[in-house]
Amino acid sequence: MPLFEIKIAGDSALNLVFSDTTSPETSTAIRQAADQLSRDPIPGIIEMIPTFCSLMICYDPMKIGFDELVSNVRTRLTTLGGGHVSQRKIIHIPVCYGGKFGPDLDDVARYHHLSPDEVIKIHSSKDYLIDMLGFLPGFAYLGGLDKRLETPRLETPRTRIEAGSVGIGGSQTGVYPLPSPGGWRLIGRTPIRPYDPNRDKPILYSAGEFLHFDPVDENEYKSIAARVEDGTYECTTEVKEA
Amino acid sequence: MGLVVRKPGLLTTIQDKGRFGYMGSGFSPSGVMDWRASRIANILVDNPENASVLEFAIAGPTLRFSTDTFIAITGANLSPILNGKPAPMYRAIQIHRGALLRFGAPVQGVYGYLAVAGGGFAIPEVMGSCSTNLRCHIGGWHGRAIEGGDYLPFTTKSMDYLPFIESHHTPYDSFYGKPHETVELRVIPGPQDDMFTDKGLDTFFNETFTTTSKCDRMGYRLDGPEIETKNGSDIISDGIALGAIQVPSEGRPIIMLADRQTTGGYAKIGTVATVDIPRLVQSPAGTPIRFRRIGVDEAQGVYRDTERYIRMLRHRVHRPIASQMSPRRTARRLTPILQKQAEISRTKKRWIDFSTKGK
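C-alpha coordinates for the assembled complex are given below, as produced in the milestone run.
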Protein backbone atom coordinates (compact mmCIF):
# COMPACT_ATOMS: atom_id res chain seq x y z
CA MET A 1 0.00 0.00 0.00
CA PRO A 2 1.41 3.40 -0.87
CA LEU A 3 2.32 5.64 2.06
CA PHE A 4 0.29 8.52 0.78
CA GLU A 5 -2.11 9.58 -1.91
CA ILE A 6 -1.46 12.68 -4.00
CA LYS A 7 -4.26 15.21 -4.41
CA ILE A 8 -4.10 18.24 -6.65
CA ALA A 9 -4.62 21.58 -4.90
CA GLY A 10 -4.38 23.96 -7.84
CA ASP A 11 -1.48 24.82 -10.14
CA SER A 12 0.92 25.71 -7.32
CA ALA A 13 0.19 23.23 -4.53
CA LEU A 14 -0.49 19.57 -3.91
CA ASN A 15 -1.48 17.49 -0.90
CA LEU A 16 0.15 14.30 0.27
CA VAL A 17 -2.71 12.59 2.08
CA PHE A 18 -1.43 9.99 4.56
CA SER A 19 -4.67 8.86 6.14
CA ASP A 20 -8.29 9.82 6.57
CA THR A 21 -8.24 9.71 10.36
CA THR A 22 -6.00 11.44 12.89
CA SER A 23 -3.54 9.32 14.81
CA PRO A 24 -0.09 9.74 16.36
CA GLU A 25 1.29 7.42 13.64
CA THR A 26 -0.07 9.65 10.89
CA SER A 27 1.39 12.73 12.59
CA THR A 28 4.74 11.00 12.79
CA ALA A 29 4.69 9.98 9.12
CA ILE A 30 3.81 13.55 8.07
CA ARG A 31 6.58 14.93 10.23
CA GLN A 32 9.10 12.48 8.78
CA ALA A 33 8.02 13.29 5.23
CA ALA A 34 8.35 17.04 5.92
CA ASP A 35 11.75 16.50 7.55
CA GLN A 36 12.97 14.42 4.66
CA LEU A 37 11.82 16.99 2.10
CA SER A 38 13.41 19.90 3.96
CA ARG A 39 16.72 18.08 4.52
CA ASP A 40 17.02 17.24 0.85
CA PRO A 41 14.91 19.92 -0.82
CA ILE A 42 13.41 19.54 -4.27
CA PRO A 43 14.10 22.76 -6.23
CA GLY A 44 10.86 24.64 -6.77
CA ILE A 45 9.22 23.79 -3.44
CA ILE A 46 8.39 27.06 -1.66
CA GLU A 47 7.00 25.78 1.61
CA MET A 48 5.05 23.02 3.31
CA ILE A 49 1.99 23.02 5.55
CA PRO A 50 1.73 19.94 7.77
CA THR A 51 -1.81 19.25 9.00
CA PHE A 52 -3.57 16.39 10.83
CA CYS A 53 -3.68 13.93 7.94
CA SER A 54 -1.82 15.53 5.09
CA LEU A 55 1.16 17.56 4.05
CA MET A 56 0.54 20.44 1.65
CA ILE A 57 3.45 21.27 -0.65
CA CYS A 58 3.42 24.75 -2.20
CA TYR A 59 5.65 25.07 -5.25
CA ASP A 60 6.58 27.35 -8.12
CA PRO A 61 5.27 25.99 -11.45
CA MET A 62 7.94 28.04 -13.27
CA LYS A 63 10.60 25.89 -11.59
CA ILE A 64 8.94 22.48 -11.53
CA GLY A 65 5.84 21.04 -13.18
CA PHE A 66 3.26 18.86 -11.48
CA ASP A 67 4.36 15.51 -12.98
CA GLU A 68 8.04 16.10 -12.27
CA LEU A 69 7.31 17.15 -8.68
CA VAL A 70 5.12 14.11 -8.08
CA SER A 71 7.76 11.69 -9.34
CA ASN A 72 10.46 13.49 -7.32
CA VAL A 73 8.37 13.34 -4.15
CA ARG A 74 7.60 9.65 -4.68
CA THR A 75 11.28 8.82 -5.17
CA ARG A 76 12.33 10.73 -2.09
CA LEU A 77 9.67 9.37 0.19
CA THR A 78 9.91 5.65 -0.60
CA THR A 79 11.96 5.01 2.51
CA LEU A 80 9.91 6.72 5.19
CA GLY A 81 10.95 5.15 8.53
CA GLY A 82 7.87 2.95 9.13
CA GLY A 83 5.97 5.11 11.60
CA HIS A 84 8.26 5.25 14.62
CA VAL A 85 10.20 8.27 15.78
CA SER A 86 13.68 7.96 17.16
CA GLN A 87 13.67 11.28 18.98
CA ARG A 88 11.10 13.67 20.33
CA LYS A 89 11.80 17.31 21.00
CA ILE A 90 9.92 18.62 24.02
CA ILE A 91 9.53 22.33 24.71
CA HIS A 92 8.69 23.28 28.27
CA ILE A 93 6.10 26.03 28.66
CA PRO A 94 5.86 27.61 32.13
CA VAL A 95 2.19 28.16 33.05
CA CYS A 96 0.65 29.98 35.98
CA TYR A 97 -2.61 28.08 36.53
CA GLY A 98 -5.80 29.47 38.04
CA GLY A 99 -6.46 32.85 39.62
CA LYS A 100 -6.75 35.80 37.28
CA PHE A 101 -4.76 33.93 34.63
CA GLY A 102 -7.06 30.93 34.54
CA PRO A 103 -10.58 32.14 35.31
CA ASP A 104 -12.17 28.85 34.23
CA LEU A 105 -9.93 26.50 36.24
CA ASP A 106 -12.46 26.09 39.05
CA ASP A 107 -15.31 25.46 36.59
CA VAL A 108 -13.29 22.81 34.77
CA ALA A 109 -12.47 21.15 38.11
CA ARG A 110 -16.12 21.23 39.20
CA TYR A 111 -17.26 19.86 35.84
CA HIS A 112 -15.07 16.78 36.32
CA HIS A 113 -15.50 16.48 40.10
CA LEU A 114 -11.80 17.07 40.59
CA SER A 115 -9.91 19.59 42.70
CA PRO A 116 -8.18 22.46 40.84
CA ASP A 117 -4.82 20.99 41.93
CA GLU A 118 -5.73 17.66 40.35
CA VAL A 119 -6.64 19.40 37.09
CA ILE A 120 -3.26 21.17 37.13
CA LYS A 121 -1.48 17.92 37.90
CA ILE A 122 -3.18 16.02 35.09
CA HIS A 123 -2.77 18.84 32.58
CA SER A 124 0.92 19.36 33.34
CA SER A 125 1.95 15.72 33.44
CA LYS A 126 1.86 14.99 29.70
CA ASP A 127 3.87 15.72 26.61
CA TYR A 128 1.45 17.00 24.00
CA LEU A 129 2.21 16.33 20.34
CA ILE A 130 1.75 19.35 18.05
CA ASP A 131 -0.43 17.97 15.25
CA MET A 132 -0.48 21.19 13.31
CA LEU A 133 -0.27 24.97 13.50
CA GLY A 134 -3.13 26.99 12.09
CA PHE A 135 -6.05 29.31 12.85
CA LEU A 136 -3.65 31.96 14.22
CA PRO A 137 0.13 32.27 13.76
CA GLY A 138 1.62 29.77 16.16
CA PHE A 139 -1.70 28.37 17.33
CA ALA A 140 -0.84 24.75 18.07
CA TYR A 141 -3.43 22.02 17.76
CA LEU A 142 -2.26 19.62 20.47
CA GLY A 143 -3.12 15.97 20.56
CA GLY A 144 -3.37 13.81 23.65
CA LEU A 145 -5.43 15.71 26.23
CA ASP A 146 -6.33 13.41 29.12
CA LYS A 147 -9.95 12.21 28.73
CA ARG A 148 -10.61 13.32 32.34
CA LEU A 149 -10.12 16.96 31.29
CA GLU A 150 -12.25 17.07 28.14
CA THR A 151 -14.58 20.03 28.67
CA PRO A 152 -17.05 21.58 26.23
CA ARG A 153 -16.33 25.10 24.98
CA LEU A 154 -18.01 28.13 26.54
CA GLU A 155 -21.53 28.72 25.27
CA THR A 156 -20.74 32.36 24.68
CA PRO A 157 -17.18 32.86 23.46
CA ARG A 158 -15.11 35.61 25.07
CA THR A 159 -14.55 38.61 22.85
CA ARG A 160 -10.93 38.90 23.90
CA ILE A 161 -8.51 36.31 25.18
CA GLU A 162 -5.05 37.53 26.14
CA ALA A 163 -1.97 36.20 24.38
CA GLY A 164 -0.37 33.33 26.28
CA SER A 165 -3.68 32.03 27.65
CA VAL A 166 -3.79 28.26 28.06
CA GLY A 167 -7.17 26.70 27.49
CA ILE A 168 -9.19 23.55 26.99
CA GLY A 169 -11.78 23.25 24.21
CA GLY A 170 -13.47 19.89 23.87
CA SER A 171 -10.77 17.27 23.50
CA GLN A 172 -8.10 19.83 22.67
CA THR A 173 -5.78 22.01 24.68
CA GLY A 174 -3.46 24.79 23.60
CA VAL A 175 -2.01 28.26 23.98
CA TYR A 176 -3.36 31.45 22.38
CA PRO A 177 -0.36 33.07 20.65
CA LEU A 178 -2.17 36.39 20.01
CA PRO A 179 -5.04 38.22 21.65
CA SER A 180 -8.15 36.82 20.00
CA PRO A 181 -11.81 36.07 20.59
CA GLY A 182 -12.39 32.47 21.56
CA GLY A 183 -14.55 29.92 23.31
CA TRP A 184 -12.00 27.77 25.08
CA ARG A 185 -12.00 27.37 28.88
CA LEU A 186 -9.00 29.24 30.22
CA ILE A 187 -7.10 27.45 32.95
CA GLY A 188 -3.84 29.42 33.03
CA ARG A 189 -1.45 31.67 31.20
CA THR A 190 2.18 31.49 30.14
CA PRO A 191 4.55 34.46 30.32
CA ILE A 192 6.47 33.28 27.26
CA ARG A 193 5.60 34.41 23.76
CA PRO A 194 4.86 31.54 21.41
CA TYR A 195 4.90 34.13 18.63
CA ASP A 196 7.21 37.16 18.42
CA PRO A 197 7.76 38.65 14.94
CA ASN A 198 11.00 40.32 16.05
CA ARG A 199 12.64 37.09 17.16
CA ASP A 200 14.96 35.10 14.87
CA LYS A 201 12.53 32.24 15.09
CA PRO A 202 9.16 34.02 15.19
CA ILE A 203 7.27 30.86 16.12
CA LEU A 204 8.70 28.96 19.06
CA TYR A 205 7.71 25.48 17.94
CA SER A 206 6.64 23.55 14.89
CA ALA A 207 4.36 20.65 14.05
CA GLY A 208 5.78 17.32 15.17
CA GLU A 209 7.38 18.69 18.33
CA PHE A 210 5.94 18.28 21.81
CA LEU A 211 4.83 20.79 24.42
CA HIS A 212 5.00 20.19 28.15
CA PHE A 213 3.35 22.58 30.61
CA ASP A 214 5.26 23.31 33.84
CA PRO A 215 3.23 24.90 36.66
CA VAL A 216 4.76 28.09 38.08
CA ASP A 217 3.43 30.48 40.75
CA GLU A 218 2.65 34.12 40.22
CA ASN A 219 6.09 35.35 41.37
CA GLU A 220 7.89 33.04 38.96
CA TYR A 221 5.44 34.12 36.26
CA LYS A 222 6.43 37.74 36.85
CA SER A 223 10.16 37.05 36.88
CA ILE A 224 9.95 35.00 33.66
CA ALA A 225 7.78 37.70 32.08
CA ALA A 226 10.47 40.28 32.92
CA ARG A 227 13.17 38.11 31.35
CA VAL A 228 11.01 37.54 28.28
CA GLU A 229 10.68 41.31 28.03
CA ASP A 230 14.51 41.67 28.14
CA GLY A 231 14.91 38.90 25.62
CA THR A 232 17.00 36.85 28.04
CA TYR A 233 14.55 34.01 28.67
CA GLU A 234 14.81 30.79 26.77
CA CYS A 235 12.42 27.91 27.09
CA THR A 236 13.84 24.64 28.34
CA THR A 237 13.88 22.08 25.60
CA GLU A 238 14.76 18.44 25.97
CA VAL A 239 15.27 15.70 23.46
CA LYS A 240 14.04 12.27 24.50
CA GLU A 241 14.80 8.98 22.84
CA ALA A 242 11.49 7.29 22.24
CA MET B 1 11.60 62.02 0.90
CA GLY B 2 8.17 60.59 0.76
CA LEU B 3 4.47 61.34 0.61
CA VAL B 4 1.94 62.58 3.10
CA VAL B 5 -1.42 60.87 3.33
CA ARG B 6 -4.15 63.50 3.36
CA LYS B 7 -7.04 61.02 3.22
CA PRO B 8 -6.48 57.29 3.63
CA GLY B 9 -9.10 55.90 1.25
CA LEU B 10 -10.44 52.40 1.91
CA LEU B 11 -8.34 49.54 3.22
CA THR B 12 -5.14 51.21 2.05
CA THR B 13 -2.14 49.07 2.95
CA ILE B 14 1.44 48.54 1.87
CA GLN B 15 1.89 45.14 0.24
CA ASP B 16 4.43 43.17 -1.74
CA LYS B 17 4.13 39.65 -3.14
CA GLY B 18 3.60 38.22 0.32
CA ARG B 19 5.24 36.58 3.30
CA PHE B 20 6.30 33.06 2.43
CA GLY B 21 7.84 30.30 4.50
CA TYR B 22 5.56 30.68 7.53
CA MET B 23 2.31 29.13 6.34
CA GLY B 24 3.25 25.95 8.18
CA SER B 25 3.24 28.04 11.37
CA GLY B 26 -0.24 29.39 10.70
CA PHE B 27 0.68 32.71 9.02
CA SER B 28 -1.45 33.80 6.14
CA PRO B 29 0.88 34.96 3.39
CA SER B 30 -0.85 38.37 2.86
CA GLY B 31 0.54 40.24 -0.15
CA VAL B 32 -1.18 42.07 -2.99
CA MET B 33 -4.59 40.82 -4.10
CA ASP B 34 -3.82 41.45 -7.78
CA TRP B 35 -0.27 40.27 -8.43
CA ARG B 36 -0.61 41.06 -12.14
CA ALA B 37 -1.49 44.74 -11.65
CA SER B 38 1.03 45.40 -8.87
CA ARG B 39 3.96 43.94 -10.74
CA ILE B 40 3.08 45.87 -13.90
CA ALA B 41 3.01 49.05 -11.76
CA ASN B 42 6.51 48.24 -10.52
CA ILE B 43 7.78 47.42 -14.00
CA LEU B 44 6.53 50.82 -15.24
CA VAL B 45 8.75 52.68 -12.76
CA ASP B 46 11.76 50.35 -13.15
CA ASN B 47 11.28 48.76 -9.72
CA PRO B 48 11.89 45.11 -8.90
CA GLU B 49 8.56 43.31 -9.46
CA ASN B 50 8.27 42.51 -5.77
CA ALA B 51 8.84 46.10 -4.52
CA SER B 52 6.28 47.29 -1.98
CA VAL B 53 3.29 49.16 -3.40
CA LEU B 54 0.26 50.94 -1.99
CA GLU B 55 -2.93 48.92 -2.36
CA PHE B 56 -6.38 50.47 -1.92
CA ALA B 57 -9.92 49.28 -2.52
CA ILE B 58 -12.82 51.11 -4.26
CA ALA B 59 -11.89 54.50 -2.73
CA GLY B 60 -8.33 55.64 -3.36
CA PRO B 61 -6.28 57.80 -0.98
CA THR B 62 -5.38 61.49 -1.33
CA LEU B 63 -1.61 61.91 -1.31
CA ARG B 64 0.73 64.91 -1.29
CA PHE B 65 4.24 64.21 -2.61
CA SER B 66 7.13 65.94 -0.87
CA THR B 67 9.70 64.76 -3.45
CA ASP B 68 10.16 64.69 -7.20
CA THR B 69 9.61 61.14 -8.40
CA PHE B 70 7.84 58.84 -10.84
CA ILE B 71 4.75 56.81 -10.08
CA ALA B 72 2.52 54.33 -11.87
CA ILE B 73 -1.13 53.56 -11.13
CA THR B 74 -2.60 50.19 -12.16
CA GLY B 75 -5.38 47.77 -11.25
CA ALA B 76 -8.86 49.15 -10.60
CA ASN B 77 -9.75 52.36 -12.41
CA LEU B 78 -10.67 54.66 -9.54
CA SER B 79 -10.39 57.88 -11.60
CA PRO B 80 -6.97 59.15 -10.53
CA ILE B 81 -6.64 62.94 -10.52
CA LEU B 82 -3.22 64.61 -10.42
CA ASN B 83 -3.15 68.31 -9.55
CA GLY B 84 -6.77 68.63 -10.59
CA LYS B 85 -6.42 66.90 -13.96
CA PRO B 86 -7.25 63.28 -14.84
CA ALA B 87 -4.08 61.20 -14.58
CA PRO B 88 -3.31 58.28 -16.92
CA MET B 89 -3.10 54.72 -15.70
CA TYR B 90 -0.65 52.00 -16.82
CA ARG B 91 1.99 54.63 -17.57
CA ALA B 92 4.90 56.14 -15.64
CA ILE B 93 3.95 59.65 -14.53
CA GLN B 94 6.45 62.30 -13.55
CA ILE B 95 5.65 63.80 -10.16
CA HIS B 96 6.94 67.13 -8.94
CA ARG B 97 7.39 68.03 -5.34
CA GLY B 98 4.10 69.26 -3.90
CA ALA B 99 1.94 67.34 -6.37
CA LEU B 100 -1.46 66.24 -5.11
CA LEU B 101 -2.88 62.90 -6.21
CA ARG B 102 -6.44 61.97 -5.42
CA PHE B 103 -9.03 59.54 -6.74
CA GLY B 104 -12.61 60.04 -7.88
CA ALA B 105 -15.40 57.63 -8.69
CA PRO B 106 -14.68 53.92 -9.16
CA VAL B 107 -15.10 53.04 -12.85
CA GLN B 108 -13.87 49.48 -12.97
CA GLY B 109 -12.35 46.91 -10.64
CA VAL B 110 -11.80 46.85 -6.90
CA TYR B 111 -8.11 47.03 -5.97
CA GLY B 112 -5.90 49.88 -7.17
CA TYR B 113 -2.10 50.02 -6.98
CA LEU B 114 0.40 52.82 -6.74
CA ALA B 115 4.09 52.10 -7.31
CA VAL B 116 6.77 54.67 -6.55
CA ALA B 117 10.13 54.75 -8.36
CA GLY B 118 13.23 53.91 -6.38
CA GLY B 119 12.28 50.43 -5.20
CA GLY B 120 9.07 51.04 -3.28
CA PHE B 121 8.58 52.33 0.24
CA ALA B 122 11.47 52.59 2.67
CA ILE B 123 10.06 50.37 5.38
CA PRO B 124 11.65 47.45 7.22
CA GLU B 125 10.85 43.89 6.19
CA VAL B 126 9.21 41.70 8.81
CA MET B 127 9.89 38.01 8.36
CA GLY B 128 11.15 38.61 4.86
CA SER B 129 8.30 40.74 3.54
CA CYS B 130 6.90 44.30 3.55
CA SER B 131 3.30 43.06 3.31
CA THR B 132 0.86 44.28 5.92
CA ASN B 133 -0.73 41.46 7.91
CA LEU B 134 -3.61 43.28 9.61
CA ARG B 135 -4.57 40.35 11.78
CA CYS B 136 -1.10 39.93 13.30
CA HIS B 137 -0.30 43.67 13.22
CA ILE B 138 2.98 43.18 11.40
CA GLY B 139 4.63 44.41 8.22
CA GLY B 140 3.75 47.39 6.05
CA TRP B 141 3.25 50.67 7.88
CA HIS B 142 3.44 49.71 11.58
CA GLY B 143 1.34 46.64 10.93
CA ARG B 144 -1.81 48.63 10.18
CA ALA B 145 -3.84 50.20 7.40
CA ILE B 146 -2.73 53.67 6.27
CA GLU B 147 -4.35 56.60 8.12
CA GLY B 148 -4.61 60.32 7.39
CA GLY B 149 -1.44 62.16 8.44
CA ASP B 150 0.90 59.21 7.82
CA TYR B 151 4.18 60.09 6.16
CA LEU B 152 5.32 57.23 3.92
CA PRO B 153 9.02 57.46 3.08
CA PHE B 154 10.61 56.32 -0.16
CA THR B 155 13.96 56.91 -1.76
CA THR B 156 13.96 58.48 -5.18
CA LYS B 157 16.94 58.84 -7.45
CA SER B 158 17.70 61.88 -9.58
CA MET B 159 15.19 63.08 -12.14
CA ASP B 160 16.81 61.40 -15.10
CA TYR B 161 15.90 58.11 -13.50
CA LEU B 162 13.53 57.17 -16.31
CA PRO B 163 15.32 58.39 -19.44
CA PHE B 164 12.94 56.55 -21.76
CA ILE B 165 9.75 57.62 -20.03
CA GLU B 166 7.83 57.57 -23.32
CA SER B 167 8.30 53.82 -23.54
CA HIS B 168 7.15 53.33 -19.93
CA HIS B 169 3.54 52.55 -20.63
CA THR B 170 1.51 49.51 -21.51
CA PRO B 171 -1.59 49.25 -23.64
CA TYR B 172 -4.87 48.97 -21.77
CA ASP B 173 -4.79 45.60 -20.01
CA SER B 174 -7.69 43.84 -21.76
CA PHE B 175 -7.14 40.89 -19.44
CA TYR B 176 -9.82 42.13 -17.02
CA GLY B 177 -12.73 42.37 -19.46
CA LYS B 178 -15.46 45.01 -19.24
CA PRO B 179 -17.45 46.00 -16.15
CA HIS B 180 -20.50 43.79 -15.42
CA GLU B 181 -19.38 41.23 -18.00
CA THR B 182 -19.45 37.62 -16.85
CA VAL B 183 -16.04 36.61 -15.52
CA GLU B 184 -14.92 33.11 -16.40
CA LEU B 185 -12.50 31.51 -13.95
CA ARG B 186 -10.57 28.39 -14.84
CA VAL B 187 -10.68 25.85 -12.01
CA ILE B 188 -8.52 22.81 -11.32
CA PRO B 189 -10.79 20.25 -9.54
CA GLY B 190 -9.66 18.94 -6.15
CA PRO B 191 -8.47 18.23 -3.55
CA GLN B 192 -11.93 17.19 -2.26
CA ASP B 193 -14.03 17.21 -5.46
CA ASP B 194 -14.92 13.58 -4.70
CA MET B 195 -17.03 14.75 -1.75
CA PHE B 196 -19.56 16.33 -4.13
CA THR B 197 -22.35 14.56 -6.00
CA ASP B 198 -22.38 14.57 -9.81
CA LYS B 199 -25.28 16.99 -9.53
CA GLY B 200 -23.19 19.21 -7.25
CA LEU B 201 -20.27 19.23 -9.70
CA ASP B 202 -22.70 19.95 -12.55
CA THR B 203 -24.14 22.91 -10.65
CA PHE B 204 -20.67 24.22 -9.94
CA PHE B 205 -19.34 24.02 -13.48
CA ASN B 206 -22.53 24.94 -15.37
CA GLU B 207 -24.41 27.52 -13.32
CA THR B 208 -23.62 31.21 -12.84
CA PHE B 209 -22.62 32.56 -9.43
CA THR B 210 -22.25 36.18 -8.35
CA THR B 211 -19.80 38.00 -6.11
CA THR B 212 -21.39 39.40 -2.94
CA SER B 213 -20.66 42.23 -0.52
CA LYS B 214 -18.93 39.67 1.69
CA CYS B 215 -15.72 39.84 -0.28
CA ASP B 216 -12.49 40.98 1.32
CA ARG B 217 -8.76 40.27 1.39
CA MET B 218 -9.42 36.99 3.17
CA GLY B 219 -11.86 35.52 0.69
CA TYR B 220 -14.66 36.11 -1.81
CA ARG B 221 -18.06 34.69 -0.93
CA LEU B 222 -20.23 33.94 -3.91
CA ASP B 223 -23.97 33.56 -4.15
CA GLY B 224 -25.73 31.09 -6.41
CA PRO B 225 -27.41 27.69 -6.49
CA GLU B 226 -26.54 25.25 -3.73
CA ILE B 227 -23.68 22.86 -4.54
CA GLU B 228 -24.71 19.42 -3.39
CA THR B 229 -22.33 17.27 -1.35
CA LYS B 230 -22.51 13.51 -0.85
CA ASN B 231 -22.23 13.62 2.88
CA GLY B 232 -21.74 17.12 4.24
CA SER B 233 -18.67 19.24 3.70
CA ASP B 234 -16.76 18.84 6.95
CA ILE B 235 -13.25 17.47 6.61
CA ILE B 236 -10.35 17.12 8.98
CA SER B 237 -8.61 20.50 8.60
CA ASP B 238 -5.97 20.60 5.89
CA GLY B 239 -3.92 23.23 4.05
CA ILE B 240 -5.56 25.97 1.97
CA ALA B 241 -3.88 27.10 -1.24
CA LEU B 242 -4.39 30.49 -2.93
CA GLY B 243 -7.65 30.35 -4.84
CA ALA B 244 -9.01 27.26 -3.05
CA ILE B 245 -12.80 27.10 -3.38
CA GLN B 246 -14.31 26.03 -0.08
CA VAL B 247 -17.92 24.95 -0.01
CA PRO B 248 -19.30 25.10 3.55
CA SER B 249 -22.45 23.24 4.55
CA GLU B 250 -24.83 25.88 3.16
CA GLY B 251 -23.45 25.08 -0.31
CA ARG B 252 -22.19 28.49 -1.54
CA PRO B 253 -18.54 28.76 -2.57
CA ILE B 254 -15.92 30.88 -0.79
CA ILE B 255 -12.71 31.52 -2.73
CA MET B 256 -9.72 31.87 -0.41
CA LEU B 257 -7.34 34.77 -1.10
CA ALA B 258 -4.27 36.64 0.21
CA ASP B 259 -5.28 36.98 3.89
CA ARG B 260 -6.74 33.45 4.07
CA GLN B 261 -6.31 31.13 7.01
CA THR B 262 -3.64 28.55 6.24
CA THR B 263 -5.82 25.59 7.24
CA GLY B 264 -9.52 24.92 7.20
CA GLY B 265 -12.16 22.28 7.71
CA TYR B 266 -14.48 22.68 4.69
CA ALA B 267 -14.31 20.57 1.55
CA LYS B 268 -12.62 22.27 -1.39
CA ILE B 269 -14.23 21.51 -4.74
CA GLY B 270 -11.38 23.05 -6.75
CA THR B 271 -8.75 25.75 -6.97
CA VAL B 272 -8.87 28.81 -9.24
CA ALA B 273 -5.94 28.91 -11.67
CA THR B 274 -3.38 31.38 -10.31
CA VAL B 275 -3.45 33.54 -13.45
CA ASP B 276 -7.23 34.06 -13.09
CA ILE B 277 -7.09 35.32 -9.48
CA PRO B 278 -6.59 38.98 -10.59
CA ARG B 279 -9.78 38.76 -12.66
CA LEU B 280 -11.70 37.53 -9.62
CA VAL B 281 -10.39 40.08 -7.11
CA GLN B 282 -11.19 42.93 -9.52
CA SER B 283 -14.86 41.85 -9.66
CA PRO B 284 -17.06 44.12 -7.53
CA ALA B 285 -20.16 42.78 -5.74
CA GLY B 286 -22.78 41.51 -8.17
CA THR B 287 -20.39 40.38 -10.90
CA PRO B 288 -21.52 37.12 -12.57
CA ILE B 289 -18.91 34.36 -12.24
CA ARG B 290 -18.69 31.09 -14.14
CA PHE B 291 -16.26 28.26 -13.57
CA ARG B 292 -14.57 26.23 -16.29
CA ARG B 293 -12.80 22.94 -15.62
CA ILE B 294 -9.11 22.84 -16.51
CA GLY B 295 -6.36 20.28 -15.90
CA VAL B 296 -3.30 20.99 -13.79
CA ASP B 297 -0.94 20.76 -16.78
CA GLU B 298 -3.02 23.20 -18.78
CA ALA B 299 -3.18 25.57 -15.80
CA GLN B 300 0.59 25.47 -15.44
CA GLY B 301 0.86 26.10 -19.17
CA VAL B 302 -1.17 29.31 -18.99
CA TYR B 303 0.81 30.25 -15.87
CA ARG B 304 4.05 30.05 -17.86
CA ASP B 305 2.47 31.97 -20.76
CA THR B 306 1.54 34.79 -18.39
CA GLU B 307 5.07 34.87 -16.97
CA ARG B 308 6.42 35.14 -20.51
CA TYR B 309 4.01 37.96 -21.27
CA ILE B 310 5.15 39.90 -18.18
CA ARG B 311 8.80 39.37 -19.10
CA MET B 312 8.07 40.65 -22.61
CA LEU B 313 6.34 43.66 -21.09
CA ARG B 314 9.40 44.44 -18.99
CA HIS B 315 11.63 44.37 -22.07
CA ARG B 316 9.27 46.57 -24.02
CA VAL B 317 9.01 49.13 -21.25
CA HIS B 318 12.78 49.43 -21.00
CA ARG B 319 13.23 49.83 -24.74
CA PRO B 320 14.66 53.23 -25.58
CA ILE B 321 12.79 55.38 -28.05
CA ALA B 322 15.55 57.02 -30.10
CA SER B 323 14.16 60.52 -30.16
CA GLN B 324 13.61 60.48 -26.45
CA MET B 325 17.20 59.75 -25.49
CA SER B 326 18.35 62.51 -23.17
CA PRO B 327 21.51 64.37 -24.32
CA ARG B 328 23.07 63.88 -20.91
CA ARG B 329 22.60 60.17 -21.07
CA THR B 330 23.89 60.02 -24.66
CA ALA B 331 27.02 61.86 -23.58
CA ARG B 332 27.46 59.58 -20.59
CA ARG B 333 27.20 56.51 -22.78
CA LEU B 334 29.45 57.79 -25.56
CA THR B 335 32.28 59.18 -23.42
CA PRO B 336 33.79 55.85 -22.34
CA ILE B 337 33.52 54.46 -25.89
CA LEU B 338 35.32 57.46 -27.37
CA GLN B 339 37.95 57.38 -24.64
CA LYS B 340 38.62 53.73 -25.28
CA GLN B 341 38.92 54.35 -29.01
CA ALA B 342 41.41 57.12 -28.34
CA GLU B 343 43.41 54.79 -26.10
CA ILE B 344 43.59 52.09 -28.77
CA SER B 345 44.49 54.57 -31.46
CA ARG B 346 47.31 56.03 -29.38
CA THR B 347 49.03 52.68 -28.86
CA LYS B 348 48.60 51.39 -32.40
CA LYS B 349 49.98 54.50 -34.08
CA ARG B 350 48.17 54.19 -37.35
CA TRP B 351 49.05 57.67 -38.43
CA ILE B 352 52.26 59.58 -38.93
CA ASP B 353 53.02 61.70 -35.98
CA PHE B 354 54.58 64.84 -37.43
CA SER B 355 55.27 66.39 -34.09
CA THR B 356 57.93 63.78 -33.15
CA LYS B 357 59.33 63.01 -36.61
CA GLY B 358 61.97 65.62 -36.57
CA LYS B 359 63.63 64.48 -33.31
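Helices of chain B lie at 35-44, 198-206, 277-281, 296-318, 327-348, 354-357. Chain B touches chain A through 42 residues (CB under 8 Å). Further analysis is deferred to the final report.
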